[in-house]
Specification:
The complex is a heterodimer.
Chain A: H1 10-14, H2 20-32, H3 34-57, H4 81-99, E1 111-114, E2 117-120, E3 122-123, E4 126-128, E5 140-143, E6 151-158, E7 161-168, E8 172-174, H5 177-180, E9 189-196, E10 202-205, E11 209-211
Parallel strand pairs in A: 3-10
Antiparallel strand pairs in A: 1-2, 4-5, 5-8, 6-7, 6-9, 9-10, 9-11
Helix pairs in contact in A: 2-3
Chain B: H1 10-29, H2 36-52, H3 62-84, H4 104-115, H5 119-130, H6 135-142, H7 146-165
Helix pairs in contact in B: 1-2, 1-3, 2-3, 5-7, 6-7
The chains are: A alpha+beta, B mainly alpha.
The structure holds zinc ion.
C-alpha cells in the first residue's frame, strides 16, 4: 500500500492542532481518499482506547505516589487522606472568613444544553487544590464523588489553553512526574472536572478553580 | 465526469459516505451532542435529493460534492447552537468521535495488546497519545530525535493496526 502524504496530518487533525485552512483541506481529502479515512478511523479508535484505558495500560509509567506530607506543617502530618481533603476545604473556608477571599467557586448548578434545552445538572465540588500559592506543583487532584460508575474527565488549563486532560472512574487523579513537569511556578492554572454517565452523557460539571504554586522545589 | 446521473448508484454512495459524513459531524459538533445523528441523517437525505435532481454534474469529485454539503450543514448547526449557547466556547479537549467505545470487549482487547507492546513503544504511545505531548517534547524527554519519535509512533501503530484488523 503506497503511503498517501496526507497521512501525516491524521494525528494533528484528531488532536485539533491543524489551522483552519489545513483542517478544511484535510477534511476534503478524506472525503476523497478511502485509505486516509480508514487509517484515521483506526488511529482514532486506538486513541480512544488509550484515553479510556490509559491508567491501566500505562500503570508502570505512573510515578509512585509520593508522600509530601512532611513538607507541610507538622500538625497536618498525621492526617489520613480523607482528613486531608477536609483540611483542604477548611483551609479554603478559613481563607474566605479570614481574608474575605472567595475561591473561584460557584454554588449554583451548572447549566448545559441537551437537545436544545437548557438543563440544570448537578455540580461537582472540587476538593483540592482549591487555594492559590501552593508551595509546589500539586500532584493530586481530588473532587467529590457523585455515585458509582461515573466517568470523570479532569481538565487542567493554562490560561484558556488546555494543558492536560485525563479520564478516570476514581474521584482523584495522581499526576505523573511528566505531567507535573508541564507546569511551572508563578503561572495561573485552573482545573475543572466533568462527569459522564455510563452512556457517555455529560451529567455534571464543576466550576473551574484557579491555582498556582510559588516555587519549583 | 464519466458518469451521468442515471448511472449513479445511490445506495452504494450512501453506504460508502455515511461513515465519512458521520466522522466529520461527530468531530465538529461532538459526540456528546445527542443530535449529531440527526444532522448526519439530514445530510445524507440532502445528498440523495441533490443527486436525484441531477445537481451533481461532475465538476468536482463526488467526495468533494458531499464534503461541501456536509460543511454547509455543520456551519449552520453551529451557528444555530451558538445563538442558544451564551457562554464562550470552551477549549477543545480531545473528544474522540468514538468516545463511547461501543464494543467493550474489543476495546479491552486492544488495550491488552497495547499493554503487551515492548516498553519503548508503550512509552511512546503514553507520551504522545495519552499525555498529548508534541513530537518535539517527546523527543526531548526521551533524548532521541523527533524523526525517531515519528518512526516509533508509526511502528507501534503498525503493530496495533494488525491487531485491530483481526
Ligand atoms: Zn489520502
Amino acid at each position: 500500500m503506497k503511503k498517501c502524504h496526507f497521512e501525516n496530518l491524521i494525528d494533528e487533525y484528531l488532536f485539533d492542532k491543524l489551522d483552519e485552512k489545513q483542517k478544511e483541506k484535510f477534511e476534503e481529502h478524506y472525503f476523497n481518499c478511502p485509505q486516509c479515512f480508514e487509517k484515521m478511523n483506526q488511529t482514532d479508535e486506538m486513541i480512544a482506547v488509550i484515553k479510556a484505558h490509559g491508567s491501566e495500560i500505562f500503570r508502570d509509567f505512573y510515578a509512585p505516589r509520593k508522600t509530601r506530607r512532611s513538607r507541610l506543617e507538622p500538625v497536618l502530618a498525621f492526617l489520613t487522606p480523607r482528613q486531608w481533603a477536609m483540611a483542604a476545604v477548611s483551609a479554603a473556608l478559613i481563607l474566605v472568613v479570614a481574608l474575605g477571599v472567595i475561591p473561584n467557586r460557584k454554588t449554583t448548578s451548572p447549566e448545559f444544553l441537551i437537545n436544545d434545552d437548557l438543563v440544570r445538572g448537578s455540580s461537582i465540588t472540587l476538593i483540592s487544590p482549591v487555594i492559590d500559592n501552593l508551595d509546589q506543583v500539586p500532584s493530586e487532584f481530588r473532587w467529590q464523588r457523585l455515585r458509582d460508575n461515573i466517568e470523570y474527565k479532569l481538565f487542567i488549563f493554562h490560561q484558556k489553553e488546555l494543558l492536560w486532560t485525563t479520564t478516570t472512574k476514581d474521584n482523584f487523579v495522581t499526576l505523573s512526574e511528566n505531567t507535573m513537569s508541564l507546569m511551572a511556578p508563578n503561572k495561573k492554572y485552573s482545573w475543572q472536572v466533568k462527569a459522564f454517565s455510563p452512556e457517555g452523557f455529560l451529567i455534571a460539571v464543576s466550576s473551574p478553580v484557579q491555582f498556582n504554586f510559588v516555587t519549583s522545589k | 465526469m464519466e458518469k451521468r446521473k442515471k448511472d449513479i448508484d445511490l445506495d452504494a454512495i450512501v453506504a460508502k459516505y455515511r461513515p465519512v459524513v458521520s466522522f466529520r459531524v461527530k468531530k465538529s459538533i461532538g459526540v456528546r451532542t445527542p443530535d449529531w445523528e440527526d444532522v448526519v441523517n439530514e445530510i445524507m437525505i440532502n445528498v440523495v435529493e441533490k443527486l436525484k435532481k441531477g445537481e451533481f454534474r461532475g465538476d468536482s469529485s463526488i467526495g468533494t460534492f458531499i464534503y461541501t454539503i456536509t460543511s454547509r450543514r455543520i456551519i449552520d448547526f453551529i451557528r444555530k447552537k451558538s445563538k442558544v449557547l451564551k457562554h464562550a466556547p470552551e477549549p477543545n479537549p480531545y473528544l474522540s468521535p468514538q468516545e463511547h467505545v461501543e464494543n467493550r470487549e474489543r476495546a479491552q482487547w486492544i488495550a491488552d495488546s497495547i499493554e503487551k507492546l515492548k516498553p519503548k513503544y508503550k512509552e511512546i504511545l503514553y507520551l504522545y497519545y495519552y499525555q498529548e505531548l508534541s513530537r518535539e517534547e517527546v523527543a526531548k524527554k526521551l533524548n532521541i530525535s523527533p524523526r525517531r519519535v515519528s518512526e516509533r509512533v508509526n511502528y507501534a501503530q503498525k503493530l496495533l493496526r494488525k491487531v485491530m484488523r483481526e
